[in-house]
Amino acid sequence: MHDLVLRGGTVYDGLGGPGAAADVAVTGDRVVAVGADLGPARREIDVTGLAVAPGFIDAHSHSDPVPLMPEPQPFKLFQGVTTEIVGNCGFSFAPLDDATIEATGPLFAELAGGVPVVPRDFAGYLADIAAAGPTNHIAALVGHNTLRAYANGMDERLRPGALEQMCRLADDAFAAGAVGLSSGLIYPPGSYGDTAELVALARVAHRWNRPYTTHMRNEDDRLGEALDEAIAIATQARVRLQVSHCKVAGQANHGNAKLLLAKLHEARLAGVDVRGDQYPYRAGGTFLNALLPGAALVGGTDAMLARLGDPADRARLRALAEDLTQPNGFWARVTPADVLITTHATRPEVTGRTLAELAGAGDAFDTLCEVLFADPGAGMVITLMAEDDVETIMVDPLVGIGSDNGPPVGLQHPRTWGCFPRVLGEYVRERGLLTLPEAVRKMTSAIADQFGLTGRGYVGAGAVADLVVFDPATIGHDGTYAVPDVRPTGVEHVVLAGHVVVEAGRFTGERRGHVVRG
Ligand SMILES: [Zn+2]
């Protein structure tokens, strides 16, 4: 007697195979059979007319603090996501100590969505989220920015012994179960690190057979160089490489998606196990201070505030920000109308407005500085990409899906609530850009394989019973930049390690997620 049978659906195996009429039987936390006449079960769900797929795996999440929120947060389950990979862009929530939290100013608080940021080592972080009970499974990367801030504060140059300490902390994190190493090389203090520093850390990942994921040093004018650096790091350290949120930013570079993909394919042919992920939008979302050149943040937030408040320093930063020959933040690569402020700790009236609106007839750079002065950790949605490039990247078989979500509170990029349904509704059904089996593969096995999540990302006997049942005819997301927190349509049932946590669209309220350790 099986525990559960999903009867009458069309199964997409996650490996790219065509949809096949089959029942799926689950016992305990595993799929035990896929096919016809599987015998009786304690519980049956009729899924006639619906698609059955492996639960989606979000390659690129910033849900690190979400399991610690007081209420369960089903925003990913409602998208069919059963596993999130957190700790991306170099920012893991461990290891942290008091000095690191102090040195990084509002940075972690801004990512935390109201959850207190407290000192923890990596094992402690994983233990705490496991004890809290995540709403879906969580696998965590250890982040270069976090390691560097811990060992070296916000200093640009490494102190003696700092790199060795970073490597020891990375080793501890992998021993605790970190599934890989991440970097975010546009964000201080990670951006102060050179290639050799990243190779040293990636070599630690190699010893644990864990991948290296990177928000590269540049995604606009120097995209090619940044890819070369990522590939060089993976080559020298002999690790799998995941290029995070593949994109081509900045109007002058639109059309360069082919360059990005050519580099990925070349590297693969040269023996690097490289893949990427992508979110299906023209806009990104990040800290507002990413508009400024890296020089603004040297020494930390207080130093940045001092510079913004000093007319000579502000003029120097403006000149740097406007210098298109150097990779100096996003300022000169967008217009103030492309920048929508989404979070602000002290002036809620500026959220939901663009820098152009806030500046009016005034100077937009000064407006930016004033907004940052009032909250150096403020967040934005920023329109950077061309739709042609988004589509070109999406059809490439090496690129999977990752949402790059923030915590599901306040105004956030709509990807937080709708990334996966948007791919299936807009890019599969409406535009016919991807087939359904291929889109499902990009959300499942393509991610599980690269992050070493064995037993996940496919539907078959022996796989972990993480399953999503959705209606291909109605799946989608109507969220917008102005009103993003809209529930997606078309996701009917979600099974998490054998437990039905969403049934007929209703979330049971249970916190059944596990911590998935490397
Ligand atoms: Zn990133």
In brief:
This protein is of the alpha/beta class and 518 residues long. The chain contains 16 helices and 20 strands.
Notable features of this structure?
518 residues; alpha/beta; nine-stranded mixed sheet; eight-stranded parallel sheet; globular; binds zinc ion
Protein topology:
Layout: E1 2-11, E2 20-27, E3 30-35, E4 41-46, E5 51-54, E6 56-58, E7 81-86, H1 98-103, H2 107-112, H3 122-132, E8 137-143, H4 144-152, H5 162-176, E9 180-184, H6 195-207, E10 212-215, H7 223-237, E11 241-243, H8 257-269, E12 274-278, E13 283-287, H9 301-309, H10 311-322, E14 339-343, H11 355-359, H12 364-374, E15 379-383, H13 387-394, E16 399-401, H14 415-430, H15 436-443, H16 445-450, E17 467-470, E18 491-496, E19 499-503, E20 506-507
Parallel strand pairs: 1-4, 1-5, 6-7, 7-8, 8-9, 9-10, 10-11, 11-12, 12-16
Antiparallel strand pairs: 1-2, 2-3, 5-17, 13-15, 14-15, 17-18, 18-19, 19-20
Zinc ion binds at residues 89, 184, 215, 244-245.
